[in-house]
Amino acid sequence: MLKAFFGRLADAVMQAAPIGSLLGLILFYLFVLAAELLRFELSVTVLLCVLVALHIAAMALMTLLRLAAGFHRYDMDIVGRNFVGISKKCRIFSHALELHFNRRINASLDEFRLLGSEYESRLTDSEKALVSFYTGRCYDQLRYYPNALMCYERAAEQGFDNSILPFLRARCTGANGDTEEAIGLYNKVLSDEKSPFRNLVYNDIGRMFLDRNEPSEALGWYSKAIANRHSVAEAYGGAAIAQVMLGDITEGERLFREALLNHIKDPKGFTDYYRRILDSVVHEKETEKRLQKLGDTK
Questions:
Q1: What are the C-alpha distances in Å from 109 to residues 132, 136, 172?
Q2: Nearest Cα to 139, choosing from 175, 180, 189, 178?
Q3: pLDDT tens digit sequence for 148-195
Q4: pTM of the predicted model, to two decimals?
């Protein structure tokens, strides 16, 4: 426990150092100004001692405030004041969260599941909801969508209240093949004007239909995203894929260039995926032509 405490203390000091140092310097300048106005004669030794004392006091104050407020390196807006402390459950949660954000998803899942089973009686209601949510995130990223959806629904029942949850539930529902239910959930996200995920909905639905090999339906949703300027680079990219799958290679190439011009995320990965789809469609068309020629010669 002492090791964990001093680890958190050191982290708090590092977090507090910039503003603590600045505050100490400001207080020193105010002290010097006050001394000049009051015509106090101060030696260099006294000034140095005051500077050091104010710096230490400001650093201590900011460190205490940082510790009192509690903090996590990741997802502060989601985690909030939960799992703050040096207890074993807090250490496990912090480590699990760190593993999660370092892409060690299986290891992270094991620790979140450990919290949810062996430490359940020691968790507050909001902590239980967080554990369910992050367990779901792990399953989601591992593509175990039924398990993820079950955890997300449990988190909602336990009181997890963050705008990311309806969006993730919709996404997992679509990945499970329940398109109509997923669209209903996505529409709820769209109806929430405060949700920061509204501009991702049309593209998500488009991708859902692409995954179901329904490019015509996907194209309609990507077109809505483009018309509404929702994540437009990704919308152009999805529309390009859909057009190529529909056989319109010329339009697909135009949209492909638009996606790159609008700085689509992971341009290399997108280009590789687009070229694979394009090569597959071209190969399929050439095969159809050869088969048709063979049929005509008979």
A1: 11, 9, 17
A2: 175
A3: 999 999 999 999 989 999 999 999 999 999 999 999 999 999 999 889
A4: 0.71
